[in-house]
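Question (not urgent): is this output format expected?
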Amino acid sequence: MKMYLFRITFVLLNILSFSACTNLDEEVYDQMTEEHFYRDERDLLAAVAPVYGGYRGLLEWRKWWDFEETTDIVVTPRAAWFDGGIYIRLNNHTWRSEDPHFSDLWGQAYGGISDCNRVIYQINKAEFPIQNKDRFIAELELARAYWYYILCEAFGNVPLIDRFDVEPGYLPATNTRQEVFDFIEASIKKNVDLLSEDTRLSYGRFNKFNAKMLLARLYLNAEAWIGKPMYDACKLLCDEIIASGKYSLEPDYSAPFAVRNENSPEIIFAYPNDEVKTGSTIYMALQKTLHPSNVKTFNLQTWLDNGVCAVPSFVEHYAADDHRLEKTWRMGQQYGSDGSMLYCTGIVPGWAGKPLNYTKEVSSLENGGEAEGYRCGKYEIEMGTSRAMNNDWVAMRYAEVYYMKAECILRLGEDANEAAILVNAVRKRSVESALSASDLTETVQVNGTAVRWGNMLLEWGREFALEGLRRSQLIRFDNNYTRGEWRFHSASQSEHLNLFPIPFTEMQANPNLKQNPGYN
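Got this back:
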């Protein structure tokens, strides 16, 4: 019997199957017969592992990481990066449903979901006995839940597709954010106890503890996303992760971001990279941020694009004794590997021959100077590397567990001294001064507006800058995302902007989709 298989695409939302390419002469099937299913467990293992490869695509151009440009952390103020104004619109919160960031993220996520559904379907159809079958399926359902977490954060109201064997021409309808939230929660709770507790064996894959971490994140954002506070549940999960003893804080803030970071005890979940085997890059850590002359700094085998940099008002939040500043941002005069001074090349008119000296200030959103703005510097850059990098991307780390628990304590009105102990346990490796309980409970100005527990929000930003978490942080704290003002960004007061628009191409292709409120 033949089964018709379909995959969601970027444009049509039709679900089409694809198999791993092993040579340039691969035969492509639009139908899959039973003899093409996996024949032994070796085939099955080979099929499960690439499901995780799609996460690396989130770090590329015009994908999930670029949404940091909607926050108070980074901006791309270069004329060469105008690209029809898409980055200016991200910074100004004047984006359009036609903008490519949204369709690119949507396609990446639903491609990953389709891969998960496909392998689950094929495991269930396999005719040979599969040892630990439930664990394989649990892992795939968690991988799928992670994709839906990303979609829930970005778009909120999206279609839920949990099967691969759908009818030809299937066009899914929109589910509410509450329904998506419930699906993620149910997927994790159903499967978490089936997953491995061996964090080294399952590095870069879902295990019992990074599944709990994902659920804790979901609960931390529940009030902002679905109007239901779930801080007690988040705190309980944090306690379980801490009590496991599986992770610990690195003594050096930069250690989780080193070239060889796969053995860091602080990393809870990462997207494994290998310069040769995966050919993946952390785009913002290298190519999009550095000036072309920095090729000589690291003897790179690639080009550099001189784009994204720090928002000046954000770096002003660092205290004088906070060494996370220089460990997060590349600043000052730049040099070659031989110690020679580097200079601007004239890619911005009038700058040729000036010292390549990264300054805090940025003069213009539309046409910033060639060396203006601190550059992203959190990930170590290996000498002689190509565009691809060997650093694994840190998606979850143990320091976040401490901060989540501290925030829950504050929001629950519990002992703020305990929250201060947790925050300072993380801070002390980088900052000489400590925060007190009264510091954390104080209402302070953040981005020009009063924020309850504002020092906690500021501390979230300093510790996790450039890790893709800032947007949800700003939304969670008194909706500073739309109420706040920062350099080049005025407050909008428009809460519908907390969700991105459903991509125009998807709306055109699927009449069953509903646009998010405020974008009609």
